[in-house]
Design goal:
The chain contains 19 helices and twelve strands. By secondary structure, it is of the alpha/beta class.
């Protein structure tokens, strides 16, 4: 009888992320002896993460087994859990997602979720993800599959429509923002805070946020309106809260891209997007420039980290380890926010689109929770993004470039700054720049 659990990381070369996820998994007694399989096509990065994980196993004195491979099928064979953290193409590829729209006035900060940049990242990534999913169906059909790859909603929507896998997508923005809000009001997230959060990835909202069972929104409102340092920490999100009455999950840099209110004029960019003090300022191409800067420094940074060997072995707040523990560890049920298709989960969002709602993990698998309807003003905002995502997914699955153009044409920020012809020219130019990576 099989006792050791096998957990496969596909795209394990994401050093910081993979290291933290492995750390969390091994802190659960029922998973401490797991076989951790690290798979990546980049041999150099795989070597670094292998060293990091071996340090964790040795320092924690875990009975875990560590395997590394470039063979995806070998990694997946018999896996109980699969984590997908891939990136299709380096910065030399995806920088065009940001640079081309800028020529047409579409000023992008991150560009990995939706809009023209997110859609083309999706078009490059979806074929690879489907190949991975087909291998999982063949070699680990009963595995619990957790996706961390962006664009989260469109990829999860595709895999959940095209496969029968038990798969959901995870984003740390829900628990990360909850931690931030709790800190603003002096509450303990683990012992005092409860919340209901729903919407779509990066546009989910806390429909309630309570401390010891009492509505904490008045405390959040006071912190935002009376403490300038709190307001400046997340200007875009705080403005959205003050005008929409509910707090959104993802950072100001991201959210400034998803609507027409903050990035369509230079004065708005200066007022809302470049005056903050948070970790993710709203500067144009912030993440692109971060990646370009690290092109020549990442090896030294990893060597320094590994030589220090001081990585905190205490469990973090990422969902993955808790989900695996609930499904095939000690079976302690766990509730998290996951990305799943909308069949009766949010009544006033499109049927079948990918939504982010509470999900329960247990030995019986993953079960999403219905939250009813979003407040009307949130539904207006979120429907727009969800429908654009649905159109982009349909365009990919049908091989219809016209649908991709329409998904970009109706993107809120694109529509705020581009004429129809400009949006079409931009889309055509992006298709040409990505032609070696696309399947249609």
């Amino acid at each position: 009888m099989k006792t050791r659990r096998k957990i496969a990381f596909i795209g394990a070369g994401s050093f910081g992320f993979t290291r933290a996820l492995v750390r969390d998994i091994l802190t659960f007694e029922a998973l401490a002896d797991s076989e951790i399989v690290l798979m990546d096509i980049d041999a150099e990065r795989l070597t670094y993460i292998e060293r990091a994980v071996r340090q964790i196993i040795e320092r924690g004195k875990y009975p875990a087994k560590l395997t590394t491979t470039a063979d995806r099928r070998a990694a997946l064979d018999g896996a109980d859990g699969v984590l997908i953290t891939i990136l299709a193409g380096g910065v030399d590829v995806w920088r065009h997602d940001i640079d081309i729209p800028k020529k047409y006035g579409v000023d992008i900060n991150v560009g990995d979720t939706r809009g023209p940049a997110g859609i083309f990242r999706y078009l490059r990534t979806a074929p690879v993800m489907l190949d991975i999913a087909r291998d999982i169906e063949k070699y680990a059909p009963d595995a619990v599959v957790l996706n961390y790859t962006n664009p989260m909603a469109m990829l999860c929507r595709t895999l959940q429509a095209e496969t029968k896998l038990a798969i959901t997508g995870l984003c740390h923005s829900v628990q990360g923002t909850a931690h931030m809000l709790a800190g603003w009001i002096g509450a303990d997230l683990d012992t005092e805070v409860t919340y209901t959060c729903a919407g779509i990835n990066h546009q989910a909202f806390y429909l309630d946020f309570k401390v010891n069972g009492q509505d904490a929104y008045p405390l959040i409102h006071k912190a935002i309106t009376e403490r300038p340092e709190v307001y400046k920490e997340e200007i875009v999100r705080n403005e959205m809260y003050l005008n929409l009455d509910y707090y959104v999950t993802e950072s100001s840099g991201h959210n400034s891209e998803y609507n027409a209110w903050f990035r369509k004029r230079p004065d708005l960019l200066e007022r809302y997007c470049t005056d903050g003090t948070g970790w993710n300022p709203g500067l144009f191409a912030f993440i692109r420039d971060e990646y370009l800067t690290r092109e020549g420094t990442w090896r030294k940074e990893m060597d320094d980290e590994l030589n220090k060997n001081t990585f905190d072995l205490n469990r973090g707040h990422e969902y993955a380890a808790y989900i695996f523990n609930a499904c095939f560890g000690d079976n302690e049920p766990f509730c998290f926010n996951g990305n799943v298709r909308n069949f009766g989960l949010i009544e006033n969002l499109p049927k079948g689109c990918c939504v982010e709602v509470p999900v329960f993990a247990s030995r019986e698998g993953l079960r999403a929770v219905s939250v009813g309807s979003l407040p009307a003003q949130l539904a207006l905002l979120v429907n727009h993004s969800a429908l654009c995502e649905e159109l982009a997914v349909d365009g990919f699955l049908s091989g219809d470039r016209r649908k991709i153009y329409h998904a970009i044409l109706f993107d809120p920020l694109t529509a705020a700054v581009c004429s129809m012809k400009e949006a079409k020219d931009m889309t055509d130019e992006m298709f040409d720049a990505n032609k070696e990576w696309l399947t249609f």
